């Protein structure tokens, strides 16, 4: 089952979960209170138990489908981005290393005696 199949299954489970929650009455009456006493055929007194169990089951199925859908998602390392489109190109980032300055050359220089006026006389 591909990612699209998981999305369809998650949507169906969500709608069923919404229906199961909307049928329940928050104060405990729910669907079973609208049918009257326990004399009814078909076991209407067990309706609240069924709705409670189906809500928990659908919630568990929904969590499992969401976790399994991450395994089917294959969009994490591909270059075909759906957000940018195919016509957008991203220029490569270029960095230039700073030029290192040359160290001054240390030559052995000899100093000649400086002639001064007094020494010249």
Automatic annotation (TrEMBL):
Region annotation Disordered: where it falls in the sequence: 84-121
Membrane-topology descriptor: Multi-pass membrane protein
Main localization (coarse): membrane
Ranges of biased composition (kind: Low complexity): 88-114
Transmembrane region(s): 6-23, 55-73
Record InterPro entries: SecG
Cellular compartment(s): Cell membrane
Keyword tags: Cell membrane, Membrane, Protein transport, Translocation, Transmembrane, Transmembrane helix, Transport
Signal peptide positions (record): none
Entry's family note: Belongs to the SecG family.
The protein's role, per its UniProt record: Involved in protein export. Participates in an early event of protein translocation.
Name under which the protein is recorded: Protein-export membrane protein SecG
Organism whose genome encodes this protein: Flavobacterium jumunjinense
């Amino acid at each position: 089952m591909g990612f699209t199949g998981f999305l369809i299954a998650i949507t169906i489970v969500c709608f069923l979960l919404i229906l199961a929650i909307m049928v329940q009455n928050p104060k405990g009456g729910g669907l079973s209170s609208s049918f009257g006493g326990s004399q009814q055929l078909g076991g209407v007194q067990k309706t609240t138990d069924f709705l409670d169990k189906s809500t928990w089951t659908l919630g568990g199925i929904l969590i499992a489908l969401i976790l399994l859908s991450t395994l089917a998602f294959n969009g994490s390392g591909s270059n075909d981005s759906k957000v940018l489109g195919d016509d957008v190109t991203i220029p490569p980032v270029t960095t230039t290393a700073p030029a290192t300055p040359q160290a001054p050359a240390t030559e052995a220089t000899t100093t000649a005696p400086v002639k001064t006026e007094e020494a010249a006389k």
